[in-house]
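Researcher: I'd like a structural prediction for the single chain below. Treat it as a standalone chain; there are no partners to consider.
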Amino acid sequence: MSTPNASETTSTEQLSTSAPTKRKRGGRIGMGIAIALIVIVLLAGLAGGYFLNAYLTKSSAPVQITETGSTLLYPLMNIWGPNYTAFNSHVTLSTLGTGSGAGQSGAETGTYNIGASDAYVANFTQTSIINVPVAISAQLVYYNLPGVTGHLNLNGTVLAMIYNQTITTWANPLILNAQSSTVQGELKALPSNAQTIVLLKRADSSGDTFLFTSLCYQSWNGFGYLPKTSGFSGLATKGSSTVIPETGNSGMVTGIEGQPGGIAYIGISYQKSVTGANVNYAAIGDNLALSASGGVNPSNYILPSAQNISEDANLGLTNLNFTSYGLAISLILGGVKDTLVTANDYGNGGTNPTATYSTPYPIVNLEYSLIKTSPVGNTVTSSSLAATVMFLEWAIGQGNQPVYLNQVGFVPLTTTVLGYDMIELGQVSV
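Model: Treating it as a single chain, here is the predicted structure.
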């Protein structure tokens, strides 16, 4: 497989390999002071059971907000929608799970009020939208292996080689090296219909594909695909390597449950949906685990938990360059030093764990709601944009609580991100 070519990307999908547009800021109070003030107001609002914001007055006329995009964020939007209508009876939220690519284009063209996306948009200044994180999510790597107990240890290098069709069998030494002796024996004893790895990929334009290809791209410089929402568009069956396309996270769940020997990347909000026999998810190697030899130290393999997802998010956010890029940031493998995944990160890994953040789960992400900064067309009207801002401020305030997030395995935003969110939403003109 040849080295990825950055010229293959489009403006909508250009999330990784060219220098993103920097945004200009001026005439503002000091960023640290602004965030400190906003966080104080935020915490006071949450303690009082409501959220203080510039649009505190509820809508007085019926408004429908339209949302489309990320199937990973879709379950949470469906939880938030009726709860927000109970809070503000004049506003209803119409949701569609169409994939992050559709969410990005829907927001950029103004055909939807909110574009939900697992992937940040680097060229947001060119399309007059803002990236507004609403929660922290993670991605799991599932496999269907009859007779294999416990969680496999898989790192980004090995996953990149699997999806590059370089590793094609579960008993490959690079996979076996990182397993316990018990699991090694189980992998060698797999039934004949499960010995060959079957790759499941997203057929739609998917933020989950962006996250997974980002992990593989950073982990191994032999990986032949770019970090994009359609990153696996060229991945197809060849030789003994079978590739099965599925639509949406729900399609990936159904696919992995019915495919012995299969492997699939699936958003954590679908974890409770995966119930098939012989299906389990892997412990993923952190940045210290990356190596072609399989990364044999078991302490470098992390299972997802609220704590470990938060650790990776906090580790990645230490690299945030808000002045230049807003809240567009990669948290994969603890984040990259230049905030966004670029060509410089090809095969160069991410950020090592620290004493403070010692067990960061490697595939973590901010979940974005993309919105216009001013009215446009017949959908993003002044009234619907104001209602959208009200909804998002409720979502990152009252909605960003365990009673909602625990249902889909998400983690609340940090107070720093909440403060930045409020600064971003303050740019909206209605």
